[in-house]
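Recall from the previous chapter that SMILES is a line notation for molecules. Here it describes pyridoxal-5'-phosphate.
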Amino acid sequence: MVFPPIREDLRGLTPYGAPQLPLDRVPVQLNVNENPYGPSPECVADIARSVAGAAASLNRYPDREFTELRTALAAYLSRDTAAGVGSEQVWAANGSNEVMLQILQAFGGPGRVALSFAPTYSMYPEYARDAMTEWVVGHRAEDFSLDLDRARALVEERRPSVVLLPSPNNPTGTTLPPAAVSLLCEAAGDGLVVVDEAYGEFRRGGTPSALELLPRHRNLVVTRTMSKAFALAGARLGYLAADPAICDAIRVVRLPYHLSAVTQATALAALRHAPELLSRVDDLRAERDATVAWLREKGFTVADTDANFALFGRFPDRHAVWQALVGRGVLIREVGPEGWLRVSIGTAAEMAAFRQALDDVMEEAA
Ligand SMILES: Cc1ncc(COP(=O)(O)O)c(C=O)c1O
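With both inputs in hand, we obtain:
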């Protein structure tokens, strides 16, 4: 008898998680695609007031339907689509991680398939595993775009209940054109197509959000998060927009009162400060484009990116480079296909420290 009596398919597995190293030892942390800019004192004060208001009634369960928050999120999303988004089309949970797990719990399950295209976000197979769903993975082209004929053929062959399509993709930064999303929504038939727009706000001008396609495809789900552009990773708030029937189905699997009163109060206050919290997106985009240009000048291969990170390579021993950067106080991420590394975009000073450290490491290795 093995102790503890964990499910056989989980035996020996290690929990997911990027290294969290102490800031005093590794001061430049560019590894989990956070927004490097914290909220202003005014925003902090508003969040504190809002949370204090919620604290006075913490003896009561929170609004299970988070009605006010759903309305505020719908108003925020409506900026990205001419058709607008109604509050009945919005669902939220503790991070988009939880939103996607709930999607797999409601729409996956034994005998059903979830599908994505690698390289992609490494949590997807974990949601599938945890929801007892078969995981099928297709592959992206050499430049990390989707070969649409092959993607459609795989969807038609495996008939997944859920297709997970991040746009921009993590760890490559690649976006999906709306025509590709439409084509895969049609190919998926009754299956759901989840366009994960965790990094949606960072996309370059002229790249529309998949939100615009919602009126055309009942099986389309667009997920977002407040963790990235919104600079609120610590609050844990992710959400989706979809047909109201999809939100109703998710209600069946959600835990009662899953969004605490404190989370709801924090997110509502942050949404009131949306223009401020999002104001650094343009700076981060500019810093990203400058980082990509610099890396290319230095002779690295860099994936085209619409996100707040860049995947670059290729290193014969990427772990050695990652480790040497840590030794110089710069933490990036060893993720994606063998030979590549991913750097999140930080402040101008952090990116200068990254460039200096990488220059030093490459010089030493030469
Ligand atoms: C593509 C993608 N989707 C979803 C998430 C989950 O973010 P959160 O749970 O903080 O909303 C991440 C986090 O890094 C991500 O990279």
